[in-house]
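We modelled the chain as a single entity of 593 amino acids. Its sequence is:
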Amino acid sequence: MTKRASLPRTAPFAQADIVALDQVIGRASTIQRAWLAGFLAGIDAANSDAPAAAAPVAQVAASPKPKLTILYATESGNTEALATAAQRNAQKRGFAVRTLDMAETTPSALKNVGNLLVIASTWGEGEPPQRAAPFMRALSNDAERIDLAGVNFAVLALGDSAYAQFCETGRQIDLRLEALGATRIAARLDCDLDYAEPANRFITSLFETLTPKADPAPASIIHVDFHRTDAQIAAQAESEDLAPAAVTAEITAYHPLTSSRSASPTFHVELDLAGTGLTYEPGDSLQILPENDPATVQAILAATGLSATPDPQTITHRLTTERDITTLTAKLVRDYAQAANNADLTALAADADATKNFIADRQVIDLLETFPTTLHGDALINLLRPLPRRAYSIASSQALVGEAAHLAVAKLAYHAAGRDRLGVASGMIAERVQQGDALNLTVKPNRHFRLPADPQTPIVMIGAGTGIAPYRAFLQHREALGSTGKSWLIFGHRHFLHDFLYQLDIQEWLKSGVLSRLDLAFSRDQPQKKYVQHILAAERDALKATIAEGAVLYLCGDAKAMARDVDATLTDILGAEALEALISAGRYKKDVY
């Protein structure tokens, strides 16, 4: 029989207290006594400036912490935020965690890591994030094949199901790690734009599986944090939220930036952030929570027979504010085919090439009208993706504008498959809001598109169209700080007379010296089209000299055409190896869309 512990008669308590304490402590388990020891030590620490003396405890050899490496590939910061949250989660569970950016490591660093969690996003049509491209090439290089036997891995992939090569980067990594001898310990999870909840579930489940079973040894300590207030705990929880709640900001100024003859109407929007708690840095974006076009909502209700229901208001609200009613994906075609019971649609959904051709220039309404069927409201809601937030580069610096944020929003309007189409967020801002209205939004930080820490570092800003937005923020910031670092802007659009965005600001900065050099490419002002890459090619010697001075290059604007052409031109001017070195050094930064 085990002898029950008891307080000695010499303990510094009254006799009645010794008896009472002895009754509690004597029947407590080892875990309960350990918790009580930590609790009392915490109280002493909280009430004293000096550290509390630690009570002697039995010395038991601590088990080594299980190793975990979290590797992420990011373009816009989503996977980086997930990796940071996963790191905190793992540390709380007792892992020895190392978090690596693919841009700052190599595949050989994965040897002997023990457990590996990869969080990777896919960019555009199946491409890895720019910063992760060198890592991906090395990982796929059979000539430098590495042995990853003994590595346990799981892959969390982020993507956009609107693209054919959905989560392609994560898929490639998953297959390659297995081919190199690593052991898959969880099936890959492919996440769409609404990734936060499924990603967190995946990470939590993985860590629960990997966490060693608790050891009820007497030396086990339950850590209690007595110093943080409820407000601090709530603030940390908010910082860990991957999809922070939006706030409402009033539009205090709204006017066109382009002339009435512009083929790309663009609007300047100023928002009042006072009282929202939002702050930002140059290079960050605002994420707008848009509302769908009411006319499109009504067309969808009619196509599905829901407009004839007695009370369509609830479904109308959800289609307006919650669901993506424009983006047509292959998955939606397949899911709708199961609900519609239409032979032609079933055949279309079964043919990948036919589906790809059908969705290429169509939207949800085209699918519903081409293959009509009556749907229950919940069935329609469940078919559609959540309505994603739209990110716009902030065109201002708080160092100059205070509690405000400026945006440059170009209206997306085009004609396809017999219908006029309108961008969801840009259409709302261009056609359905005005000064005095409000937008629901949140800030999306982008630490990979920041100004250099040294304000004297030269910068080269390359952009077209609304790609000018973050550069206006950069130049406002340098103006506010009185920076004398060289700033070179290379800007392109269609017509000088109709599309020179922020012309007066730019001319003032050029006059004051905040902007050192300006080169313009208005593509339609001469018979031979002129783009920003043509300026780079023509000014190759000046560009090389500026880079030699330590300049940081920035690129912002269209990803499909402009960014590819600029990359090709920079590769021609500098060489592929030198350009890759700039990327690795953080001296070539992109914000493309």
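As a brief sanity check on the tokenised model: The chain has 23 helices and 19 strands. Residues 30-46 form the longest helix (17 residues).
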